[in-house]
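>> received
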Amino acid sequence: MTLGELLTELRENILHDRSMQIAGPSDLLWSDDTLKLYINQAYFRFAAEAMCLRDNVTPQYTQFTTIPDVDQYALDPAVMAVIS
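>> returned
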């Protein structure tokens, strides 16, 4: 789904935040910016808990040089788990 489709689904089918207004300032309960923030937070929470996003191409996260006699390395906070 695109962000626009997610916004429509959230606003109309979940929150029932609709307006028949044809002029004047918006009377919607939730701004698009607020809903985008919530969608983004849900996306990252789901990805972290399900560990469903895997990256094998971004060198800053996926590659490092090993050093002899070192068995622990500091990883970027974005790294949730090491597969191999």
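>> The two ends are 31 Å apart (CA to CA).
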